[in-house]
Design a protein that fits this description.
Elements (H helix, E strand, L loop, with lengths): L2 H8 L11 E7 L3 H15 L3 E3 L8 E6 L4 H23 L5 E5 H14 L5 E3 L7 H9 L4 E3 L7 H4 L5 H7 L2 E5 L1 E2 L10 H4 L4 E2 L2 H13 L4 E5 L7 E3 L5 E3 H8 L7 E5 L8 H9 L6 E3 L7 H6 L6 H14 L4 E8 L6 H14 L3 E6 L17 H26 L3 E9 L5 E5 L5 E5 L8 E9 L4 E5 L2
Parallel strand pairs: 1-2, 1-3, 3-4, 4-5, 5-6, 7-10, 10-13, 14-15, 15-16, 19-21
Antiparallel strand pairs: 8-9, 11-12, 17-18, 17-20, 18-19, 20-21
The chain binds S-adenosyl-L-homocysteine, iron/sulfur cluster and FE3-S4 cluster.
Length: 466
């Protein structure tokens, strides 16, 4: 039986002139959690006969999974929707229907506005209602324009299908797993508490079951995700609340799961058991994304980060004492309202003190509805641009120094995907660097010993150590 007839048999109610296989094109913006969510939505749609396509023009459904974190990110959505409107029109002229859906954080924050500004959009769906996506599409088919942005009372994870073996295999040997969602911290610059809602932690059993499925599908490295992943406190099988350190311990019991990571962490939520996990679990990679945003205590206070630079530096010393080869990455915002030259110099000094293997830095972007938007003393664009350039120069220098310091080291490399040249693979170092090495594609998923021989701008080079 061909695949097409089997799909037709499975869907006896389908009109004979309707294409038996429907195609969905998903475009993902923003953070890793959106990457995870896009896969979960694709999995939910697969049950209704949708297959993914990389060609937007072929799609019966185009889903934009959007990000609202900075103004530029949100603007991208409206320009993409302009292009999609034209494509939808063109396809309608050819007698082919195309549905347009907007998911993610812009959907949550500006649902009504999207429907008003973009009449071609059929569906707006917020992150807490993805399990209702198949039902929402049925409503669209009946001619409705659907807005689904409630905070659902039911647990979406209970209703979203976990990845199956075939899909997991196709997605590779590393995977994301969302364990925590939402944020209760309300930093004054940030939209996340409004777009993702309050903190929710998935229960241990659900997480372990999903991790086991991933490993059954060939995954060797799992990155636990959360907007504040170390604020995770899920219910354990014993009925007690577990912390992330305990969860990591439990996950190391899954045979075949070689590596664990977690991101993004808030400095206030690094508890003792999590720090001990860095000491005790060799599977937990020595790489930590621990954003501070600014090196000025005055600005940290205005941002409502609720810790000082001294506390941050002391915390890092503690984690490094537990795991001496730990490397750090971070996030920085320049030009938060009221940031003076002196505050900015403090940020540069903090970066010098800490030393980052990698870091992301952004110009402060005023977000409507956040307390920061109402603050006086907004910093002019040209000042922000100059500060960003200086900060990025320093961070890039540190990143290169970190890469250079790796040369000569013998490390474990998780072989991940084909490299640029035939006979080469790209692997990941414990510190999340891409490393090129001569290896066979049958070795993807293996962890091998290599010696780092060189460093390019974006990746390292290595040779196999026997
Ligand atoms: N929960 C994480 C951050 C999630 S948002 C934490 O607390 O560290 C990812 C990053 O986007 C932030 O760390 C911050 O550096 C940046 N960001 C968030 N809001 C921003 C804004 N309004 N302007 C510029 N950058 C912003
Ligand atoms: Fe945003 Fe702050 Fe929450 Fe991070 S901790 S998601 S920056 S509000
Ligand atoms: Fe963006 Fe939402 Fe992630 S605003 S950074 S997609 S949580």
């Amino acid at each position: 039986m061909t695949q097409e007839t089997s799909v037709l048999t499975a869907k006896p109610d389908m009109a004979p002139d309707v294409a038996p296989i429907r195609k969905v094109f998903v475009k993902t913006y923003g953070c890793q959690m959106n990457v995870y969510d896009s896969d979960r939505m694709t999995d939910a749609l697969a049950k209704d006969g949708y297959v993914s396509t990389d060609v937007m023009e072929d799609a019966d459904l185009v889903l934009l999974n959007t990000c609202h974190i900075r103004e530029k990110a949100a603007e991208k959505v409206y320009s993409a929707l302009g292009r999609l409107r034209d494509l939808k029109k063109k396809k309608a002229g050819e007698g082919r229907e195309m549905m347009i859906g907007v998911a993610g954080c812009v959907a949550q924050a500006e649902g009504d506005e999207i429907l008003r500004r973009a009449p071609a959009v059929d569906l707006v769906i917020g992150p807490q209602t993805y399990h209702r996506l198949p039902e929402a599409l049925k409503r669209v088919k009946r001619g409705e324009r659907v807005l689904e942005t409630d905070y659902a009372i039911e647990d979406k994870f209970e209703h979203l299908p976990a990845p199956d073996k075939a899909k997991t295999k196709a997605r590779g040997v590393t995977a994301f797993l969302t364990v925590q969602e939402g944020c209760d911290k309300f930093c004054t610059f940030c939209v996340v508490p409004y777009t993702r809602g309050s903190e929710v932690s998935r229960p241990v059993a659900q997480i372990v079951a999903e991790a086991q499925k991933l490993v059954d599908g060939g995954v060797r490295e799992i990155t636990l995700l959360g907007q504040n992943v170390n604020a995770w406190h899920g219910t354990g099988p014993d009925g007690a609340k577990w912390g992330l350190g305990e969860l990591l311990h439990r996950l190391t019991a899954i045979e075949g799961l070689a590596r664990l990571r977690y991101t993004t962490s808030h400095p206030r939520d690094m508890d003792d058991s999590l720090i001990e996990a860095h000491r005790d679990l060799p599977q937990l990679m020595p790489y930590l994304h621990l954003p501070i945003q600014s090196g000025s205590n005055r600005i940290l206070k205005a941002m409502n980060r609720r810790h000082t630079t001294a506390e941050y530096i002391a915390l890092i010393a503690l984690i490094k004492a537990a795991r001496p080869d730990l490397a750090l990455s971070g996030d920085f915002i320049v030009g938060f309202p009221g940031e003076t030259d002196e505050d900015f110099e403090d940020t540069l000094r903090l970066v010098e003190t800490v030393g980052y293997a990698q870091a992301f830095s952004f110009k402060y972007s005023t977000r409507p509805g956040t307390p920061g938007a109402d603050l006086e003393d907004q910093v002019p664009e040209d000042v922000k641009a100059k500060r960003l350039e200086r900060l990025q120069t320093l961070l890039l220098k540190q990143q290169n120094e970190f890469a250079q310091a790796c040369i000569g080291k013998t490390i474990d490399l998780l072989l991940e995907k084909p490299g640029r040249m035939p006979g080469q693979l790209i692997g990941r170092s414990p510190w999340l660097q891409s490393v090129n090495v001569d290896a066979m594609s049958s070795q993807i998923g293996d962890i091998i010993r290599v010696r780092i021989t060189g460093a390019g701008p974006n990746s390292l080079f290595a040779e196999v150590v026997s």
